[in-house]
Amino acid sequence: MTQTETHSSQETTRRKRESFAAMSGVAMTVSIAAFDATIISTILPRVAQALNGMALYAWAGTGYFLACSVSILIFGRLGDLYGRKRLMLLSLVLVGLGSALSGLSQSMGQLIGFRVLQGVGGGMMIATAFAAPVDLFPDPKERVRWMVMLSVMFAVASGIGPVLGGAVTQSLGWRAAFFLIPVTAVLAMVLIWRFFPLLRPERRGPIKLDWMGSLLLMCAVGAPLVGLEFLTLGSQVVPTWVAVLTMMSALVAAYCLMRVERSVDTPIFPLRLLEPKQMRYLNFAALLAGAVMFVLIYYIPLLLQDVFGFSPTRAGFVIVPLVAGIPIGSIVNGRLFPKASNPQRLMVFGSVSLTIGCAIALTFTEQTSLTTMLVTMGLCGFGLGFLLPNFTLFSQIIAEREDAGIASALVQTTRALGSAIGTALVGMIIAEMTIQSGLRIGLVATVIASVLIGGLTSRVKMNSYT
Q: Which end of the chain is more exposed for a tag (fewer CB within 10 A), N or C?
């Protein structure tokens, strides 16, 4: 081997190591986003009691998810315009600071405020971290392996978060649980600061921020979530007409947003993003997948406990294969994607697996064996593993390179909206009917939604892009 070849080999090895270190920091950031969203689920009852804030219990979670959802698209676009490294670092600062302040809260109002701060940071994290592989790996066939890494880390961290939060709270108190995130955030910041490249997108001229578009975008995304929250509170707390009017205001905001975005030089939400039919198919499929996933996660345990008489521990055990199946499916998808001549078929396979799983779940009775339930939930998770990472990857491929961040953010936002809509609608059906009847209707809806996902993903023709 000549000296030139040796030097080239060493340079390639060094770049691979730096890319691995950079992606390790990104993966850690994704894990923090998952921890931040889920760790409070097991500690919030203890927090609300300690701070005498049971009346504001729901808003500690709602405030976070609302702030996160309305900020994802905005920071996805800002990452495209200004680069992602600084935004990732800032997101780690905001989430770490918000978590530490939450641990020091002296009232429920303070906790909600600090959770909203964390939500803004969480939205920034999700928007930049899931788009970060585009900066390091332009080739989609190479990028898919790293997208799998992020999906696996997010899924595993989402499953571990509630368990870890409960364990730390039981051992050291609820305040200590909030300090897990700042410690991890420091490690992620070191890796990203040291190894992630500071890439500045090429600018044709000065950028004038689209403030009006940003405000309208937040209203278009946030109004449906607030309206659904009002509906779940019941008409005695918030009149139904107020909830419906709040949700309808999203349509007005979306219409005004389209008018504004056509007239500004640097739109916060470029309308060209939705011009390809494939992009519209992907995001509608992502919305349905988010609804199916969270209906299963939230309501299968309710069915098992309140209808079949399972203990909380046993019901939680049945859901484990669903959470574990997602990373397993993602890993298999990542191995098959580079070899697939028609990679969209992987999403179709995932939707078929999800449909079969949901259909079997619909037949659950008190006599159904535990093994059948575990395999069924594993089948659903395995199917989702072929869908969730591919929604993000394919949207990045379809979009222009300069829109990769906003494209990734759009998929994450539609998934979040789907999860909120799905859980709220099934919850309202249950409130109007018996638990068993409402859950049966909800499970029928998951089967229909899974079939629709298959139909939508089969129409995403990716050959020309890959």
A: N
- Over residues 133-178, the pLDDT tens digits come to 888 887 777 777 777 778 778 777 776 776 777 777 778 888 888 8
Alpha-carbon gap, residue 353 to 278, rounded angstroms: 22
Q: Quick check: 336 and 346 in contact, CB under 8 A? A: yes
Query: What is this structure's pTM?
Result: 0.81
> Token digits for 309?
């008489």
pLDDT tens for 238-256 read 788 888 899 899 999 999 9
Residue 138 — φ and ψ, nearest 5°? -65, -30
Q: Please say whether the beta carbons of 243 and 227 come within 8 A.
A: yes
Least confident span in 1-10, 52-61, 290-299, 374-383: 1-10
Packing angle of the helix pair 3-38, 180-195 (nearest 10 deg): 160
The pLDDT of residue 448 is 94
Whether residue 38 has pLDDT greater than 60: yes
Q: How far apart are CA 182 and CA 205, in angstroms?
A: 38
What's the token pair of residue 288? Answer: 């349905």
Distances (CA, A) of 401 to 134, 162, 163, 218: 8, 37, 39, 24
At position 298, the amino acid (one-letter code) is Y
Identify which of 265, 204, 217, 187 has the alpha carbon closest to the alpha carbon of residue 75: 217
Neighbouring CB atoms inside 10 A of 274's CB total 15
Residues composing the chain: 466
CB 284 within 8 Å of CB 415: no
Is the pLDDT assigned to residue 14 strictly greater than 70? Answer: no
